[in-house]
Amino acid sequence: MPDFSHEIALASRGHTRVAGVDEAGRGPLAGPVCAAAVILPPSFSSPLLDDSKKLTKKRREVLYDEITGNAEIIWAVGLVEAPEIDEINILRATHRAMGLALDALSEKPDIALIDGLPVKGLSLPHEALVKGDGLSLSIAAASVIAKVTRDRIMANIDQEFPEYGFIRHQGYGTREHLESLRKHGPCRHHRRSFQPVSQLTLPL
Known about the structure:
Nucleotidyltransferase, domain 5, five-stranded mixed β-sheet, 15% strand
């Protein structure tokens, strides 16, 4: 289970305000990539908080409400939509979403803990933790915020384009989604640079 050991280590080096950062939506064929940044108070405790991928949807929703409803927790999200993903590629779009989330925090952190590999171009120092969402409570909190935020966005897109079934697969390349793509062609939320979307020539 994630804990505060990495945050405590950073605090011992003078970094008293640490933001955990994670993203959701790098792999789907449609929708935005979403990143979240979260600064937890040292007193925060949650026996249920873990990497969002290990949690049920119901548990993620409960934790989302717990985190966002706590006045002591500072959090923000950053989004990069499909057209920009196609323009700059998914890696740079993910890094941009992380930067947007950090810049949107109401209080500037001293340092960020990033899930994954180092990120170029962030506006503040950071340390990268591979599989950090299972190691750091701050990153785990960010993973929940990013995942729930993106799932809610995909639910709204599903209402706009119900023929693709986004509510069920969140834009990932499931058999249902691929069949819908072959039948209807891509919509404006599809990432045109991703295969197999890039192989389709049907208009919006």
